């Protein structure tokens, strides 16, 4: 049985993985889109996701989660 700490660690690691995955998907999508407005919107979504990734990564570092 996992402790609360282990569950939190696993949840944060999964969130970090998902943010990274979404950023990569948005980047790939933006490369394929030719409409400038849609491309910009997807690029902004990618940047927001990368910001989430950075914030999660910092929080995990502060909590000692590797």
Please, could you describe this protein's structure?
There is one protein chain. It is elongated and about 50 Å long. The protein has one domain. Helix 1 (4-32) runs antiparallel to helix 2. The protein is an all-alpha fold and 66 residues long. Helix content is 85%, strand content 0%.
Mean pLDDT: 95
What is the helical fraction, as a range of percent? over 70%
Number of strands: 0
String of helices and strands? HH
How many helices in DSSP terms? 2
Globular, elongated, flat, extended or rod-shaped: what is the shape? Answer: elongated
Summarize the structure.
The protein has 66 residues and is mainly alpha-helical. Helix content is 85%, strand content 0%.
Name some characteristics of this structure:
single chain; 66 residues; mainly alpha
Write the layout of secondary structure elements.
Layout lengths: L3 H29 L3 H27 L4
Helix pairs in contact: 1-2
């Amino acid at each position: 049985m996992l402790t609360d700490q282990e569950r939190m660690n696993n949840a944060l690691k999964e969130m970090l993985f998902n943010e990274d995955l979404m950023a990569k998907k948005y980047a790939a999508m933006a490369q394929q889109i030719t409409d400038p407005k849609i491309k910009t919107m997807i690029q902004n979504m990618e940047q927001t996701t990368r910001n989430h990734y950075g914030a999660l990564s910092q929080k995990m570092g502060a909590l000692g989660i590797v």
